[in-house]
Amino acid sequence: MSSTPANPRLPRMIDVRKFAQQGIHLAGDVPVSGMERLAAESLNSDQATVAAVLEFGVDEERHRLIRGTADCSVQVTCQRCLEPVEVALHADINLAIVWDEEKAKQLVKSLDPLIVGEGPADLYAIIEDELLLELPIASYHDHDCIAQTSFGEEVEDTGAKSSNPFQVLEQLKGSPKS
Predict the structure, then answer these.
(1) I need a surface site. Which of 41, 72, 97, 113 has the fewest CB within 10 A?
(2) 113-161: per-residue pLDDT in tens?
(3) CB contact set of 38 (below 8 Å; sequence gap of 6+)
(4) Residues in contact with 146: Cβ distance below 8 Å, sequence separation at least 6, in sequence order
(5) SS3 call for 168
């Protein structure tokens, strides 16, 4: 029984303009531990790996492009029970490489600008930006989980509606509501 070899690790620093001119295709992994903002922002563990597939090229309007996908499964904190929950992230990457803000404003709406100066660009940061945009605002388990109260007591989250808090006053008044 042969094991499937791991995807190669993508290079961190690349010349995105040269890659676009040459029509380079990259497929490989990026460690989440190499994405400091993503790992520090919201993840419980930086042991995940991002699988990325990127196509560099030039379109009919002579825009240098990066197109592809980035997928990973990360562990974040459930906002109900404060326990770890697995979240799948999928980013569709559709970037046009530009020199400055002026060129970015001239792009069609279907392309997001990637402003890059001279020299190499950080590929991990490019992928990380796209994944940060895909993180949910709040993460929850798919199933009911135990919610923690502010006093540390566990409360079963059943989704059932609680009784009317004014029901006691209604009984004291002695006249049931019609």
Answers:
(1) 41
(2) 888 888 899 999 999 999 888 888 777 777 767 655 455 555 555 555 5
(3) 32, 74, 128, 131, 132, 135
(4) 80, 81, 154, 155, 156, 157
(5) helix
Strand partners, 14: 121
Query: What's the whole-model pTM score?
Result: 0.71
Are the C-beta atoms of 158 and 46 separated by less than 8 Å? no
Alpha carbons 152 and 81: distance in angstroms, whole number: 11
Cα–Cα distance for residue pair 12/51, rounded to 1 Å? 14
Do 99 and 124 form a contact (C-beta atoms < 8 A)? no
Q: Average pLDDT for residues 6-14, to the nearest whole number?
A: 85
Alpha-carbon distance 161 to 143, whole Å? 17
Number of residues that make up the chain:
178
Is 3 a residue whose pLDDT tops 50?
no
Q: What is the C-alpha separation between 139 and 76, in angstroms, rounded? A: 7
Report residue 73 as tokens.
Answer: 């499964």
For 175, counting Cβ atoms within 10 Å of its Cβ (0-12 exposed, 13-18 middle, 19+ buried), the class is exposed
Q: How many CB atoms lie within 10 A of CB 54?
A: 23
The radius of gyration computed from the CA coordinates of the chain, to the nearest angstrom, equals 24
Tens digit of each residue's pLDDT (9 = 90 or more) over 82-92: 778 888 889 99
